[in-house]
Amino acid sequence: MAFSHPSTDSTLTPGDRRLLPVPFRHVTIDDTFWAPRIQRNRESTLPFIYQNLQETGRIDALRLTWKPGDEPMPHIFWDSDIGKWIEAASNSLATTPDPALKQQVDDVIDLLAQGQHADGYLNTYFTVVAPGKRWTNLRDLHELYCAGHLIEGAVAHYQATGERKLLDIMCRYVDFIAQTFGKQSGQKPGYDGHEEIELALIKLYHATNDARYLELSRYFVDERGRQPHYFDNEARERGEDPQAFEMGTYEYNQSHLPVLEQTQVVGHAVRAMYLNSALADLAREQDDERLFAACRRLWDHLTTTRMYLTGGIGTSARNEGFTRDYDLPNETAYAETCAAIGLVFWAHRMLQLDCNRAYADVMELALYNRVLSGVSLSGDRFFYEDPLASDGTVHRQYWPDVCCCPINLARMLPTLGQYIYSANATDIAVHLFIQGEAQFTIGGQAVTLRQKTGYPWEGGIALQIDAAAPFTSNVRVRIPGWCRDALLAVNGETLNIDDIMQSGYAVIARLWQPGDTITLDLAMPVERIFAHPAVRADVGQVALKRGPIVYCLEEADNDIPPWQLLLSDESPIESVFEPDMLEGVAVLRGMALAPDERDWNDPPTLYSTSRPRFVSAPFTAIPYYAWDNRQPGAMNVWLHAAQNT
Amino acid sequence: MAFSHPSTDSTLTPGDRRLLPVPFRHVTIDDTFWAPRIQRNRESTLPFIYQNLQETGRIDALRLTWKPGDEPMPHIFWDSDIGKWIEAASNSLATTPDPALKQQVDDVIDLLAQGQHADGYLNTYFTVVAPGKRWTNLRDLHELYCAGHLIEGAVAHYQATGERKLLDIMCRYVDFIAQTFGKQSGQKPGYDGHEEIELALIKLYHATNDARYLELSRYFVDERGRQPHYFDNEARERGEDPQAFEMGTYEYNQSHLPVLEQTQVVGHAVRAMYLNSALADLAREQDDERLFAACRRLWDHLTTTRMYLTGGIGTSARNEGFTRDYDLPNETAYAETCAAIGLVFWAHRMLQLDCNRAYADVMELALYNRVLSGVSLSGDRFFYEDPLASDGTVHRQYWPDVCCCPINLARMLPTLGQYIYSANATDIAVHLFIQGEAQFTIGGQAVTLRQKTGYPWEGGIALQIDAAAPFTSNVRVRIPGWCRDALLAVNGETLNIDDIMQSGYAVIARLWQPGDTITLDLAMPVERIFAHPAVRADVGQVALKRGPIVYCLEEADNDIPPWQLLLSDESPIESVFEPDMLEGVAVLRGMALAPDERDWNDPPTLYSTSRPRFVSAPFTAIPYYAWDNRQPGAMNVWLHAAQNT
């Protein structure tokens, strides 16, 4: 079986051997797949988002002029949209100067500065809509969640520009939060219903080197789910019955149990991913084996029972999250864009703690499929939820009222470079295959790694190493779990991968000479994929995958609706690169079986004792990420399998 | 292919050769299948309904003491529940005296009498809740629908008891309705959004022989869907935008087109069935070929594109009705009990106009499957909607707030006898195979037909004819469409069915001697059923049927959840009568294929390039009507078919 990953049953790598991502500012991307997307994100999506933040009143809301009766009323989560947009814009500015965009950001930061209270508090909703209600409903009202996104925005802004204005604002606010929350007398033993500030505080700690922020993050994580339950007490103080919680269970916000006792990913998927990302951060920063073990348990549970083939997670619209093991319906899949992005965040952090392709494979899967599907080719239509089957009525939205997903995409794309490589004093790790160049420092020596590849359409990769002088290093090259036939060579000399495989990475330890070239050839046949038989929606179904790309069939390419086709186990399927389709994609073409409807139509027959006769029918599959960019029609990732039992 | 029916492309049978149902008062049922159900309906369901009518305030509402602020507020459709209950109770009283029940009915009729206005008007909601709003919203508020059910109740009461009190009340009310509605100046050119009064007026016409009631019914049918549209004008008069109609389209209430121009069954399924029943009635009463042709078009459309295998109809909860051709999802099937009952009403009427098994087969299918599934074996739990697949969370309700379905079942079951036989001056027709005795008059001669059978579990039927003297008659015996091997004999002498087949009925014309016996042996093998390939939910699926009974698999009988099984085309399936299961059912037993989960669990694997291995697994199927009478669990009518393509 493919997709069997190296065990994640590892202990925490010693601190000096842990990896760190190579920052995206040190990585250029110049391929034909991602580079145009990053450019479009900068040129189309970012202006589109700013325009919508303006038009929907989110920016004007920062002027704090709202009065009861005014429309629109600032929403509890609007500050988070502002924070994420600042982060998105700053991430773009970090590599691509844009004075107009910089001015937009500075103006918004000025508004935030004016809105900060004397005590450091900063929240639009609780300033104008619900003054006096500060910290009265952490369970539902996203107060610390908004702070978290503003923190992330502040750190990104500082890193991109070197300017401390927003960073200082947020440090003042966090100082006030740290006074407010904690275990000391007079403090509230609270934490937010929507995790986010926990991982943001780790970023703030790195940006400021102030360990109090690390401790505050740890406090929020440790307090979560303790008894007596903070959200129970808080509800009673509001005069509400804690049992009347709309979502029914604290699994919704992962506070049903103390975090270290949790063994299953539950509840709201984005919240779970943000929490788990913070857990991985804290495990690293605090050398905490137990936190790391908790992360691995949750990871294994998620990836072996609750993840869609596309890397989408979170089954149900009801809780925007998880339901039961193997409950992965296709047509009603919620699989929110933000949740897939959160999964990438978490996978990326796990990967630095254990250079194990179990994490990199899922990171890649989510990136190339469910994350990328979130935005249209035009850059201005967005999936919030994105199913794996559609009757033709599901489409990307122009601007969802809850616009977390577009902005989450916009903040991630400019940082794609940081997901490709990691390094430490002795090692370089290559996680993703994306053409471009990266700058490392290995043992004090500047090293440039130039990656050339036609990925994801071709499996050939060349990594050329440049440095001023020879240097010793372990270069860890990921051999993807989906690949069953990889050839690795250095300067044309083939290596035996099996001999040097560690947790799914080929580890090449040598004295590297300037100009050395590693070549990797990943066989990329079309694969038929089957799901665990407990996945009810996928019993008797088959999906198509090639390399990291999950495919789907759309009616736009197929005369016969995809749900009517039967795919046999053996018929050949070829991959053909179509430069003019969907901005250039490898499509899959083959023959399937289709029932002959004519037998049923004369005379019209709805039910029969005669099995439908099947006839050959050509099919074309396209990458899932590119669906719903043409005329509406049925779409299916999973197809009926002809079961030659 | 089975289920190919004789063409329904017939012309209206001349009046003197049309059939009439043999009234249920002339038919006894003494089998082990239906008789206990009719008894339970009388002994458990009727008292249960009365108790709930009381407890929910429906009976007290008739005292007209409700004032604003009182709870509960009488609902617009409560009068229809009263009317249907009177009909149910009367139908039971017609064959089984019960003084206490009679007293309950009389008391309710007294309340109705007191509630009738001086002008004849009678409606609880518009008397106490919305006085002054009479006839202002026929589109939505069920005003004439309620009148229709009270009329049906009145006719049933009159026929059961000979007492005219309620009949006279309703004649006065209908006289007022007839003054109010029509094409004359000063009259409203209206009709009800929920059809029902149209068919009720035909019954009133038969009970009173007053042709004005027939004409009023025809008026309502003819006016429906004419332009300018009554519901448009009515909405404007209320100061509303007609476009703001919540259901979006007048297809919802079949007023999108004049009735004679309609070619597709659309909208709310119960409304459509009640309308179509009235169309068939009017075609008969008025010798109207065009109405009959409209009925046949609608019939063919329904039964070849929009009917579930169980006889359930109406796909969507949104409109409680039809969506698109072949849109028959299983797990979300609405398939309301009342709609299946309405289908039986319509089929029964069509059958009298054209003695064609196309109608009888569907009538039987709906009766034995979707109608019967509506009530639990205990007689006090009811499906409103009833899907063809369940994850184990769908159950019959104790008493739905909208309780049309329980009462509809309760009024139909006592009348089951009328669906078995029809007759006219020359012919006797045997439509259903239910043990019991029927009294006919053929050419002035009293004839008794004694039917003996173990149907639906066994296909052997004996019909013994008794009369004082020999008589000439055509006895039409239905050869069901599901049967591919039938043997027919008279007094042991085999007949060549093909020679005497007319529209799916074997027609035996002879001089009948007292004591003559017709025997019919219907081969009843287990059949695998497939759906038209355009039915998305059923592609690659197979269902099981034996005789008239549709089967399902429940987790209660199967170690492996039914959605995980694959059924091959060839493996033998046996039918075994289990007297102690579910009050005695023939279950189906055989071997299916089940994926071996062990391959996927060590190590845990969610997706793989290896197809699941299948192992043999025994299965047990039970009649669909009996599902959800034991511990909760998954249920499936349609199973994965092992596709040996």
Write down the Rg of chain A. Answer: 25 Å
Amount of beta strand of chain A: 15-25%
Largest sheet of chain A: 10 strands, mixed
Q: Tell me the overall shape of chain A.
A: globular
Main attributes?
Immunoglobulin-like; homodimer; alpha+beta; 24 strands; 645 residues; 7-stranded antiparallel β-sheet
In short:
Chain A has helices at residues 34-55, 78-95, 99-115, 124-129, 143-161, 165-180, 197-208, 211-223, 230-237, 269-285, 289-305, 337-353, 357-371, 404-412, 497-500, 598-601; strands spanning 20-21, 27-29, 389-390, 421-423, 427-430, 436-442, 445-453, 460-467, 471-478, 486-490, 493-495, 501-502, 505-512, 517-522, 526-531, 541-546, 549-554, 566-567, 573-578, 585-595, 607-608, 614-623, 635-636, 639-641. Chain A is an alpha+beta fold and 645 residues long.
Would you kindly provide a written description of the structure presented here, covering whatever features stand out?
The structure is a homodimer of 645-residue chains. By secondary structure, chain A is α+β, with helices and mostly antiparallel strands. Among the domains of chain A are: 31-245, no CATH class; 422-522, Golgi alpha-mannosidase II (Immunoglobulin-like), CATH 2.60.40.1180; 526-641, no CATH class. Chain A is 33% helix and 19% strand. Chain A is built from 16 helices and 24 strands. The first copy, chain A, has helices at 34-55, 78-95, 99-115, 124-129, 143-161, 165-180, 197-208, 211-223, 230-237, 269-285, 289-305, 337-353, 357-371, 404-412, 497-500, 598-601, and strands at 20-21, 27-29, 389-390, 421-423, 427-430, 436-442, 445-453, 460-467, 471-478, 486-490, 493-495, 501-502, 505-512, 517-522, 526-531, 541-546, 549-554, 566-567, 573-578, 585-595, 607-608, 614-623, 635-636, 639-641. In chain A, strands 3, 15, 16, 17, 18, 19, 20, 22, 23 and 24 form a ten-stranded mixed beta sheet that branches. In chain A, strand 10 and strand 11 form a beta hairpin. In chain A, helix 7 (197-208) runs antiparallel to helix 8 and helix 10 packs antiparallel against helix 11 (289-305). Chain A is globular, with a radius of gyration of 25 Å. At the A-B interface, helix 11, strand 15, strand 20 and strand 21 of A face helix 11, strand 15, strand 20 and strand 21 of B. Strand 15 (526-531) of chain A pairs antiparallel with strand 21 (607-608) of chain B, so a sheet runs across the interface.
